[in-house]
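Protein modeling request. Please complete all fields; requests missing the sequence field cannot be processed.
Requester role: graduate student
Desired output: 3D structure, token encoding
Chains: 1
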Amino acid sequence: MEVHKKITIGVCVMEKKVFSAPMRQILDRLQAFGEFEVIHFGDKVILEDPVEKWPICDCLIAFYSSGYPLEKAESYATLRKPFLVNELEPQHLLHDRRKVYEQLEKYGIPVPRYALVNREVPYQELDYFIEEEDFVEVHGNRFWKPFVEKPVHGDDHSIMIYYPSSAGGGMKELFRKVGNRSSEFHPDVRRVRREGSYIYEEFMPTGGTDVKVYTVGPEYAHAEARKSPVVDGVVMRNPDGKEVRYPVLLTPNEKQMAREVCIAFRQAVCGFDLLRCEGRSYVCDVNGWSFVKNSYKYYDDAACVLRKMFLEAKAPHLSSAIPPILPWKVNEPVQPTEGLTRQGSGLGTFGQSEELRCVIAVMRHGDRTPKQKVKLKVTEEKLLNLMLKYNGGRPRAETKLKSAVQLQDLLDATRILVPRSRPGRESDSEAEDFEHAEKLRQVKAVLEEGGHFSGIYRKVQLKPLKWVKVTKSTGDEEERPVEALMVLKYGGVLTHAGRKQAEELGRYFRNNMYPGEGTGLLRLHSTYRHDLKIYSSDEGRVQMSAAAFAKGLLDLEGQLTPILVSLVSKDSSMLDGLDNASIEMEEAKARLNEIIKSGSKMIHSNGSSDCPWMADGVGLPPNASELLPKLVKLTKKVTEQVRQLAKDEDEDLAETNPYDVIPPYDQAKALGKTNIDVDRIAAGLPCGSEGFLLMYARWRKLERDLYNERKERFDITQIPDVYDSCKYDLLHNAHLNLEGLDELFKVAQLLADGVIPNEYGINPKQKLKIGSKIARRLLGKLLIDLRNTREEAISVAELKSSQDQVSKSTKTEKEDKDYPPKLFIKADDTRRSSTTSDISMDQDDDDDKETQYRLDPKYANVKTPERHVRTRLYFTSESHIHSLMNVLRYCNLDESLQGEDSLVCHSALERLYKTKELDYMSYIVLRMFENTAVALEDPKRFRIELTFSRGADLSPLEKNDSEASSLHQEHTLPIMGPERLQEVGSYLTLEKMEKMIRPFAMPAEDFPPPSTPAGFTGYFAKSASVLERLRNIWCIGEWIKFSIGAGSGDTVK
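Delivered output (1053 residues):
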């Protein structure tokens, strides 16, 4: 019998790499075949011996690592001509990111949009490079923040991400893992580096997850997901201290990309980084030789692929078929169970047949400072010129100042215009001058407040009111503005308490909203089995509430700005604004005025004892008209006390600067704080960033607007603002001991509890009309979320059924022996629609067509790999919470739904009637469950559960609640737990839910294609081209069944 000479495999690699666990595992498997002899060169031979003395081998494993003589290895390969697993000359490319991107583009492999800045010497000024506050421009190619800055040298891992001022600004530095960290956030760094050459590229929002791909030859690719370092920089590790990664399925496009990366760089064993963003994938880094850690299945695969490669190169006459039993299988150790140190491990069960499929929550933002507005007419040349500077020189056009540069310009002008001393008030004209000077002083104080400028905190409008014609030097006439209205909006900023509330609620959701999961939600999320999207309105407090909630939900650490940019999408059209219902709301306020003036006799005109909520003006106190004068009197009393404090502060400022001891409050640094500012409290200053001058301005405006003494008229629209200020100061400024504030709060609360809910409709029918107009788009989106979840669940059920049938009928011994497995397109790659129209879907979210990434069940140590949960979180303001609740409880009053019961049960309607306020962090949750024991076509297959929470609906005067009293010291009120909107045991089907909500929801086909905000390429919108591409890729209305899902370790063909 012929004895074949063993093929020699030379391992010409630094010893540190040779003795790594993956390399040992794979080399041991290769030797176990009995066909190979492995020769280790060793560091001494590689570094000291000439190549002529290096061992001779048939096949060579050689790759660069720190200290490795790559040119020397190239000389050896030229001399001996072994088969190279990874070619040596292209490895030089991997040290230069510019060449890596150039090579990727040459082979048509998608990369993020980027530009190069090459400097010959440090700090070299370049005429093609421009840096502004929120963007850099390279050769006319503009990159809006957030953008990424990478050194051109591949061995320099100091990568920076710069964040927009609208998200709080700052920079995050990514670096190679040091202990438990992989990145660090620097809130004060806003300027880019200039000491070297850099690549600037568009930031890709990936939902907080990165994908690492590992090829073994062009026909094999394995992928793993890990927590992205851009979120909070904390490395998630298992009990053995290793980074937690989960194997995931690659899409057919990604498999092709893996093949092309392998070929482009002529590296058979190659690792690279994938960014999955908006349904597309991009390669952002190529690492060269890389092996997967801690996966025995991968070690088996890699050894088999390398064996085939070596045999085909050096012994093609030998069979490369995989033996029926792999030689090392008998003694293979059992793969350890995965666990998460920080969160616990294991997934619970849902019970016999019902599984959670979807969690949708609509939430109000957390505790905030009172919203403020200053209006003043300005005639000063400096301010008028500023308006012209930023509106393009158009005399009749208004301008908005929001960026740091614009607000700094305004502050500089205001500082010059504010008089150094306060004049007396002798005559009317002098009183007007005094008033004007006070408002300018207030504008200056607002602009100086809070450290860094950011549009997330304040904005200024300048609207021209009067013009004159002036003659230019050329003799031509031109129009010039001589008076303008300045409107400064500020306040409404999320407080430390608001951040704490949102983070705590995120933790509560993590532990309670996912039955059977417990802290396993984190594992569900990490493994691509949790499809999470978070949306926010345009308001800074809402965005930051969303980021803080995400921090608690996903157990993240650090500052909120990177979390906001990575995980939160803005959708102002869905979550902002009351324009659609402004006329109806004005009518409601007018009717409210009538009811208050007429007293109790009109309040119960059309209600009943069984349904008291059906009456007009429900919730208003019968003696409302008598409470108004009391409200005015107490407001004046508090205002006077604050005026004295402001006066004392002003006098102190003239002599010394109190901030010499207490540093100015920095809003940017405060973004991540969840505790009170002890130093300011101890110094007797107001909590947060508000000084006494601004506190006085706030109360003085309330006093003036609440009651017009000349016209003897009350303005009931100011009642919510008075209540707002009372509650804020009782919670955050109780240490100032303002006399009468407690009593004022009680009166304001009585009135506000009646006024606020009635502003959204004076009776249920009007509430339904206003609610459906405000929340129309949001309601449409919620129905789309539910429908998409149903379609996906049905798809999975059908696929599983077909797989079960195929596995019973087609499983043969030959298929068990074949290697590698044949490529099949997983059902996730061809989506199904319940309609035949390719436009009747959510084009804004595009969930019908977006790529659904999945866990790879063959490699993952997870009990239920097919399990998938969709979570959609919508953060908004009070108006949208009221509107959504009003539609849910009163939808059956619509003429088209006559005879139908409300979605909300009678006992819950009573509770809502008694609920006085939907306070900070109030929320409405829709959870959808699938009963897998019921037929797919049965309406009872999908059940909806509705719950709501009143939020932090506890009086700051509460003395009997032990939790509240302890939290009160931290200026934070607890959030009430969820309450059911349905009877226990009742069954609301998805079909019924859709029927009741559809008349008030925007139809899916009416969702317009998304548009990118002007001057912003950012992370909040999908491009229309992506949607068009996705529409063309997926077959709508068809369902193609395949027998096996394509695994991430499958053959690429």
